[in-house]
Write a structure and sequence with these properties.
The protein is of the alpha+beta class and about 425 residues long. About 40% of the residues lie in helices and about 20% in strands. The protein has a five-stranded mixed β-sheet with strand order 5-6-1-7-8. The structure holds a DNA duplex (18 and 18 nucleotides).
Length: about 425
DNA sequence: TCTGGGGTCCTAGGACCC
DNA sequence: TCTGGGGTCCTAGGACCC
């Protein structure tokens, strides 16, 4: 038995936990730079605010309709997510944290004799009591069916956010209800293709031949089909280590100078290195990309990326920044208005198994230096220790005009309650 | 003026080997 | 007319997810 548990409107709900006065009010949470909507409360959905609505186009509407807007407060959401996952992990022997607001739970047959309604309700009660967040629980014999059960739990209010696909009748009923385009693993491209073939519901998809699915949608499509048929194909996959780590940002204003981009790329590389050290990995290659604003078609567009292979595996911010800037210098073209850039580190390997190169290696002193930098930054706040090539005057600022406090991760910003 | 960020997995095709 | 067969490794790009 699998369960897929997700937090309802996660970011918007996190904001509401610390603003109980907003109960029943519409809430939207914005992406970095206050760019566009990335989470909506039920009330905001009811007002037909679409996902990814750009703030500048919707600001007036929000004012007129009393929609409360928040800048994305990712330290808060990350911390709340950890709390929820810790609570839910106690309910099953195996788990897979699938995203910041979703977790798969798994029980082998001999442990799956419980009443799903009862267990799902227990999960909801405990998470609500301990974190203030509402969740939905879907049970099923496979991951894909648990996903659909979760969707049903959320869609029909009379179910109290818990639903189980635990019989063949329920499986067929669910598949005949579920639009193919909304099935987990069916994206825009495949949905279009399938609809052209007359495939409208998940059920229609399961009636196709394996041969057709394999040919048109590769093994991923075939696995999904089997999972929907109730044959467990997708397994619990508890990956702790990331295989790539990325830091990418859009800028508030356009950059035209190489020096400005060098500073950004350096900061991104340093941040990647810090994440590498957190999971005790090194990287052996670093990708750098820059591009202009693709929404602005009146200016010439430019987009380029480059992969720099490192001569040795490392997680030193100094080294990674150095190679990233070398890459940037190769792809930078003057005369363009740059809007976005990023650094992605690839080929991650455990630091404990670092392979030394024959001729050139990372400066061994960097290991202890980086440890000290991490300790100082953890204690005194992010970015207290920086490279000289990073933004010293704090010129670079993200637009965050509606930022809530770090209620759960910074003691200075903890809530004050007057009784 | 203003439009996010961070991931995974798979496949095709090229370059190479014997 | 006819032009082998069987592999590996790497990378870019596509499709998908939240």
């Amino acid at each position: 038995m699998f369960a897929l548990v997700d937090c309802n409107n996660f970011y918007a709900s996190c904001e509401r936990v610390f603003r109980p006065d907003l109960a029943g009010k519409p809430i939207c949470v914005l992406s970095n730079n206050d760019g566009c909507v990335i989470s909506r409360s039920d009330e905001a959905r009811a007002l037909k605010v679409p996902m990814a609505a750009p703030l500048f186009k919707w600001e007036a509407f929000f004012r007129e309709n009393g929609v409360h807007v928040f800048s994305g407060n990712f330290p808060l959401y990350g911390d709340m997510s950890n709390r929820v996952m810790t609570i839910l992990g106690d309910f099953s022997p195996e788990m897979e944290v699938y995203s910041i607001d979703e977790i798969f739970l798994y029980w082998p047959d001999e442990e799956a004799g419980f009443d799903t309604q009862e267990l799902g309700t227990a999960m909801r009660t405990k998470v609500m009591q301990w974190t203030g967040l509402p969740i939905s629980v879907g049970f099923g014999p496979t991951k894909a069916l648990a996903k659909i059960a979760n969707r049903i739990a959320r869609r029909f209010p009379q179910l109290d956010n818990v639903y189980a696909i635990d019989s063949e009748e329920k499986r067929l009923k669910a598949l005949k209800w579920m639009p193919i385009a909304e099935v987990w693993g069916i994206g825009r491209k495949h949905a279009k293709r399938l609809q052209r073939e007359g495939i409208v519901k998940a059920y229609d998809f399961t009636q196709l031949t394996d041969y057709w699915v394999r040919k048109n949608m590769a093994v991923i499509g075939l696995r999904l089909k089997h999972d929907l048929e109730g044959k467990p194909t997708l397994q619990i996959d508890d990956i702790q280590q990331k295989r790539n780590i990325a830091i990418t940002r859009s800028f508030d204003v356009n950059y035209t100078e190489l020096e400005q981009l060098k500073e950004r790329i350096t900061s991104f590389a340093v941040a990647c290195a810090e994440k590498l050290r957190q999971q005790q990995s090194d990287c052996s290659s670093v990708m750098v990309f820059i591009h202009t604003n693709w929404y602005n078609d009146s200016r010439p567009q430019y987009s380029q990326s480059i992969v720099v292979r490192l001569p040795f595996p490392t997680n030193s911010g100094i080294e990674i920044a150095k190679f990233a800037v070398q890459g940037l210098e190769q792809i930078f073209q003057p005369g363009y208005f740059y809007k976005k850039a990023g650094v992605i580190v690839h080929e991650l390997t455990p630091t404990s198994q670092r392979q030394m190169a024959l001729f050139e290696n990372s400066d061994p002193r960097h290991d202890s230096l980086m440890r000290s930098v991490d300790r100082i930054n953890r204690h005194f706040g992010q970015q207290k220790v920086r490279l000289a090539s990073q933004d010293q005057k704090r010129i670079w600022k993200m637009r965050q005009e509606h930022l809530s406090k770090r209620y759960t991760t910074n003691i200075a910003e903890i809530m004050t309650i007057k009784a």
